[in-house]
Design brief:
alpha+beta; 4-stranded antiparallel sheet; 39% helix; 20% strand; globular
Protein backbone atom coordinates (compact mmCIF):
# COMPACT_ATOMS: atom_id res chain seq x y z
CA UNK A 1 0.00 0.00 0.00
CA UNK A 2 1.34 3.44 -0.85
CA UNK A 3 0.21 6.87 0.25
CA UNK A 4 -0.84 7.71 3.75
CA UNK A 5 0.20 6.15 7.03
CA UNK A 6 -2.75 4.02 8.14
CA UNK A 7 -3.99 3.00 11.56
CA UNK A 8 -3.12 -0.58 10.61
CA UNK A 9 0.46 0.51 9.82
CA UNK A 10 0.65 2.17 13.23
CA UNK A 11 -0.66 -0.92 15.02
CA UNK A 12 2.07 -3.07 13.43
CA UNK A 13 4.80 -0.52 14.14
CA UNK A 14 3.76 -0.10 17.79
CA UNK A 15 3.53 -3.87 18.35
CA UNK A 16 6.96 -4.54 16.85
CA UNK A 17 8.59 -1.67 18.74
CA UNK A 18 7.01 -2.69 22.03
CA UNK A 19 8.08 -6.31 21.51
CA UNK A 20 11.69 -5.18 21.01
CA UNK A 21 11.55 -2.93 24.08
CA UNK A 22 10.37 -5.92 26.12
CA UNK A 23 13.19 -8.07 24.68
CA UNK A 24 15.80 -5.59 25.87
CA UNK A 25 13.86 -5.01 29.11
CA UNK A 26 13.57 -1.23 28.80
CA UNK A 27 10.15 0.40 29.24
CA UNK A 28 9.68 2.84 26.38
CA UNK A 29 7.36 5.48 25.04
CA UNK A 30 6.68 5.12 21.32
CA UNK A 31 5.10 7.91 19.28
CA UNK A 32 4.10 7.91 15.62
CA UNK A 33 3.13 11.04 13.71
CA UNK A 34 1.70 11.45 10.22
CA UNK A 35 3.48 13.32 7.43
CA UNK A 36 2.36 16.68 8.86
CA UNK A 37 3.73 15.91 12.34
CA UNK A 38 0.35 15.26 13.98
CA UNK A 39 0.27 12.45 16.53
CA UNK A 40 -1.30 9.36 14.96
CA UNK A 41 -0.43 6.59 17.46
CA UNK A 42 1.13 6.39 20.88
CA UNK A 43 2.15 3.80 23.48
CA UNK A 44 3.50 4.40 26.97
CA UNK A 45 4.76 1.17 28.45
CA UNK A 46 4.35 0.60 32.18
CA UNK A 47 7.35 1.89 34.08
CA UNK A 48 8.49 4.34 31.38
CA UNK A 49 9.72 7.76 32.40
CA UNK A 50 7.23 10.63 32.35
CA UNK A 51 9.65 12.90 30.44
CA UNK A 52 9.78 10.27 27.69
CA UNK A 53 6.19 11.14 26.70
CA UNK A 54 7.18 14.59 25.42
CA UNK A 55 10.57 13.45 24.15
CA UNK A 56 9.18 10.58 22.04
CA UNK A 57 6.59 12.87 20.47
CA UNK A 58 9.27 15.47 19.80
CA UNK A 59 11.51 12.89 18.14
CA UNK A 60 8.70 11.70 15.87
CA UNK A 61 7.77 15.28 14.97
CA UNK A 62 11.39 16.25 14.30
CA UNK A 63 11.99 13.24 12.06
CA UNK A 64 8.90 14.04 9.98
CA UNK A 65 9.40 17.81 9.93
CA UNK A 66 13.06 17.66 8.87
CA UNK A 67 12.91 14.34 6.99
CA UNK A 68 15.95 12.98 8.76
CA UNK A 69 16.83 11.01 11.85
CA UNK A 70 17.08 12.94 15.09
CA UNK A 71 20.68 11.73 15.42
CA UNK A 72 21.45 13.39 12.08
CA UNK A 73 19.69 16.54 13.26
CA UNK A 74 22.01 16.55 16.28
CA UNK A 75 25.08 16.22 14.09
CA UNK A 76 23.96 18.86 11.61
CA UNK A 77 22.92 21.45 14.23
CA UNK A 78 26.28 21.66 15.95
CA UNK A 79 28.05 25.05 15.77
CA UNK A 80 29.53 25.42 12.28
CA UNK A 81 27.41 22.63 10.77
CA UNK A 82 25.14 23.23 7.80
CA UNK A 83 21.84 23.66 9.65
CA UNK A 84 23.14 25.10 12.92
CA UNK A 85 20.33 27.15 14.46
CA UNK A 86 17.54 24.91 13.14
CA UNK A 87 17.05 23.62 16.69
CA UNK A 88 15.83 27.12 17.58
CA UNK A 89 13.30 27.33 14.73
CA UNK A 90 10.65 25.38 16.63
CA UNK A 91 11.77 25.54 20.26
CA UNK A 92 10.36 22.79 22.41
CA UNK A 93 9.58 20.53 19.47
CA UNK A 94 12.93 19.86 17.77
CA UNK A 95 14.89 17.00 19.34
CA UNK A 96 18.52 16.57 18.38
CA UNK A 97 19.56 13.21 19.79
CA UNK A 98 18.93 9.65 18.65
CA UNK A 99 15.61 7.83 18.68
CA UNK A 100 13.56 9.42 15.90
CA UNK A 101 13.30 8.41 12.24
CA UNK A 102 11.20 9.51 9.29
CA UNK A 103 8.80 6.87 7.99
CA UNK A 104 9.23 6.48 4.24
CA UNK A 105 7.19 4.34 1.87
CA UNK A 106 8.06 4.14 -1.83
CA UNK A 107 10.33 7.15 -1.45
CA UNK A 108 7.55 9.27 0.06
CA UNK A 109 7.47 10.67 3.60
CA UNK A 110 4.42 9.25 5.38
CA UNK A 111 5.29 10.11 8.99
CA UNK A 112 7.81 9.76 11.77
CA UNK A 113 8.53 7.51 14.73
CA UNK A 114 10.03 8.60 18.02
CA UNK A 115 11.10 6.36 20.88
CA UNK A 116 12.30 7.41 24.31
CA UNK A 117 13.10 5.66 27.55
CA UNK A 118 16.55 4.15 27.20
CA UNK A 119 19.90 5.25 25.87
CA UNK A 120 19.89 6.80 22.41
CA UNK A 121 21.17 3.49 21.03
CA UNK A 122 18.35 1.56 22.73
CA UNK A 123 15.78 4.08 21.53
CA UNK A 124 17.07 3.75 17.96
CA UNK A 125 17.08 -0.04 18.18
CA UNK A 126 13.43 -0.09 19.27
CA UNK A 127 12.45 2.48 16.62
CA UNK A 128 14.15 0.40 13.90
CA UNK A 129 12.27 -2.70 15.07
CA UNK A 130 9.04 -0.76 14.68
CA UNK A 131 10.04 0.57 11.27
CA UNK A 132 10.75 -2.96 10.07
CA UNK A 133 7.03 -3.72 10.51
CA UNK A 134 6.07 -0.98 8.03
CA UNK A 135 5.04 -2.71 4.83
CA UNK A 136 6.43 -1.31 1.57
Amino acid sequence: MCGKLTASDCDRILAAAEARAREINVPMVIAIVDESGVLKAFKRMDGSLLISVKVAQGKAYTAAALRMSTREVGERTQPGADIYGMQFADVGNIISFGGGFPLIRNGELIGGIGVSGGSCEEDEDVARAGMAALEP
